[in-house]
Each structure stands twice: as C-alpha cells, then as structure tokens.
Amino acid sequence: MIPVEEALMRVLGALSPVSAETVALPEAWGRVLARPVAARLSQPPADVSAMDGYAVRAADATEGARLALIGAAPAGHPFEGEVGFGQAVRIFTGGFVPRGADGILLQEDAERSGDSVLVRETVRAGRWIRAAGLDFREGESLLQPGRALSARDVGLAAAANHPWLTVHRRPTVGILATGDEIVLPGEPLPRGSIVSSNAHALAALVRAGGGQPVVLPVARDSAEALADTVGAAARCDILVTSGGASVGEHDLVRSALAPHGFAQDFWRIAMRPGKPLIWGRLGEVPLLGLPGNPVSALVCGILFLLPALRRLSGLERCETPLTRAATATALPANDGRQDYLRARVEQVEGELPRVEVFARQDSSMLQLLAAASALVIRAPHAEALPAGAEVRMIELGNLGI
Ligand SMILES: Nc1nc2c(c(=O)[nH]1)N[C@H]1C(S)=C(S)[C@@H](COP(=O)(O)OP(=O)(O)OC[C@H]3O[C@@H](n4cnc5c(N)ncnc54)[C@H](O)[C@@H]3O)O[C@H]1N2
Ligand code: MOO
C-alpha cells in the first residue's frame, strides 16, 4: 500500500493538459485559459472625465471666475476644438477631455447661466481626469494561461477587445460502473440488485471539476462485458471505473483489462475509505479504478479525480485546499491508513471553526456523506487527540460538490 501523497504525485505526474479550443466570450466563464491575453487597446483610450461637469484650464478656473461655454463633450462624442483662456466645455463622465483643458469643474461646483459658467470652487490641474491607459495599455499582458476565468477576468478580456478566447477543452471523463448487482436509477430492480449511485455522483463531481462526463453502460462482472464496454472509452481523456477493485474473484477490473492493454501503475493505497484504488493506463487512456463502496468512490473522486481534472484542464494549481479546525470530540489514535472522516463544520466567530466528526464512518453510508461538510484528515499513526485539538480538513463546499 502506498501513501496518499505518493499516489497523488503519480496520478498527476502521468497527466498533461488537454488541447485548446477557441470559444466566444459568453462561453468563457470557468474555462481554463490556454493562451495569454494581452490588451488590444489602451483603456481608457484617451484622457477622459471621471465626472459630469466642465472641462477647463485649471489656471483660469479659480473661485469666482466666469468662463465662456464653447461646446459639449458627452461620452462617445468628443469635442474636436480646443479650450482656450477663459473658456469651458460641458463634459460628462467618460467624455474625452478636449485639447487645452487640464481639469474638471464639477457640475455641483458650477453655476451656469446661458453660455457662461461661474466657478464656485477652484479647480486643481488633473482633478477628475482619468489619464489615457490608466487601466491598461495596448500590448500589456493581462491574463496568464492556467487560470480558470472568473467573471472579473471575462470583463477584463472584453474591455481589452477580445471577442474570443483560447481555452483548454473540457476533459472528457468516461465513467464506468461495474457489477452484476448494479442497475441504473429507475430500472427494474431484480432481487439482489442495487441502484448505481456511483456513476451519477461521479458525473456530478466531474461537472463540478470542469470536465465533461460520459456515463457508459454498466459492465457486468465478466471479463468480456468489461472489455466490450471499455472499448467505448477509447476517446476519453481519462476513464474512471467504480467497483471491481478489490480482492474478490468478481473484482475484475485489473485482471479483465490486462489482456486489453491495461498497464497498472499502482493498486491499493494506505487510506480509508478507498484502499483498493487502481491507477494505470488502458492503452493510451489513463484509468482510475475507484472502489465500489459509494463513500469510498466519492472520497477517492475528491482526492484523486478532482486534482486529475485540474491537471487535464490546464489549471496551474492542482492540489486540494486544506483548512484548519478544532475537533469537537476526542479522536482515537489512528492505524497505518490515512483517514478521511465525514464531519460537519460550524463557524465560530474569532476562533477556528469547530468540526464534529460523525460517530459512524461506514463507507456505504451516502446519507452521512451528503450531510457532511468536511472530511477531517487523520494521518497514518496519528496520536489520539482531545476535544478542542487542531485538525486539518477538506471543506466540501469549497469544491463545489
Ligand atoms: N477480503 C477483502 N474484502 C474487501 C476488501 C479487502 O481488502 N479484503 N476491501 C474492502 C474495501 S475497503 C472496499 S472499498 C470494497 C471495494 O470493493 P470493490 O471495488 O471491488 O467493489 P465491489 O465489490 O464491486 O462493491 C463494493 C460495494 O459497493 C457497492 N457498489 C458497487 N458499485 C456501485 C455503484 N455503482 N453504485 C453504488 N454502489 C455500488 C456494491 O454493491 C458493494 O456493496 O471491498 C471491500 N472488500
Ligand atoms: O476503501 Mo473501503 O473504502 O475502506 O470501504
């Protein structure tokens, strides 16, 4: 059994980002940028007014002065003349500052009568003017590859005049549930069968991780059935199986796929739940074999499939963020497997969040997993902890799952 950290390194080390495609800006949110975005123009393109008022020469616009109004510069309609001595041009927020002007007299600080304006408050040079290129300059590098595009990034790319962006494809993830007892939700349920929750839960997890799930038909517990179904996965970026990972003679994934080009990298890791995890390659396709127990499948999905998706998507950072909390109950000493304990987090003002580990941790209990908001991590051979001690955890809400 290898440690979790080594297993994750081997998974990530075997993967590289999928190819790129070009998408229209409205489709770009959440996608991972594959090429840098540089400004195609300067923003603002010229000196503009930050306020509604009058563009003036600061030297003339002292309190009590009266200026002659010679025109207007609303946003989108620049005034093409020049502001001379004793003159002013009506201007609105976003309007280009006309030549000759070097300050803005606020509307609130001016009194207009006909074609003249009385200055009520002395104007400082440069006041209320946004200089050309204040936000960014043409050619300036704005966004680097490897980041998932936020709404703010999309706004920045739009302002920089990019109607299209080059992003990585969403990785395609084949999901294959195996087992004679497995039927899909809604199908007839012969005695001895159980409904496959894993395929759907994993498909949702793949979506949350930015991938495109392809749920394959359930493979029966026979070498032929498994090999047949798996052929359909040849064009996926990664194939994920659930079930058939353990030691029983019906646990077929490794043995049935070996004659079809499966090369195993590792099998079994020192964690709970999820010991019988499989990692390898089926021909060209990376294969992650998850254990059948529903909680084990999902916990391994969180620990290995989400980081794998991040790597395939081209994200720069692949690791799952850990946070700290204080355990609400005493925790026993651990054995040699790293534990991921289902738990509920409660925020406490001014202190570490409080986390309550559920008393029952059976790896078949989906209801408890759904009720959990964190997985508390217990390292191999960790010592017993009293209530109140600090622990590390994965907060499930942070992962969008
Ligand atoms: N003698 C041993 N037995 C087991 C060991 C072991 O080391 N020695 N490991 C146990 C552990 S830990 C786990 S986890 C399970 C994993 O076994 P498999 O990956 O081979 O899974 P199955 O045997 O196919 O199924 C286990 C369990 O999960 C249910 N299941 C399977 N697929 C689905 C699905 N798509 N949706 C919902 N539930 C599913 C299945 O009905 C079984 O109840 O092995 C232990 N045994
Ligand atoms: O991996 Mo098993 O997960 O301990 O039920």
Automatic annotation (TrEMBL):
Pathway: Cofactor biosynthesis; molybdopterin biosynthesis. Its cofactor is Mg(2+). It catalyses: adenylyl-molybdopterin + molybdate = Mo-molybdopterin + AMP + H(+). InterPro entries: MoaB/Mog-like_dom_sf, MoaB/Mog_dom, MoeA-like, MoeA_C_domain_IV, MoeA_C_domain_IV_sf, MoeA_linker/N, MoeA_linker/N_sf. Catalyzes the insertion of molybdate into adenylated molybdopterin with the concomitant release of AMP. Keywords: Magnesium, Metal-binding, Molybdenum, Molybdenum cofactor biosynthesis, Transferase. Belongs to the MoeA family. This is Molybdopterin molybdenumtransferase.
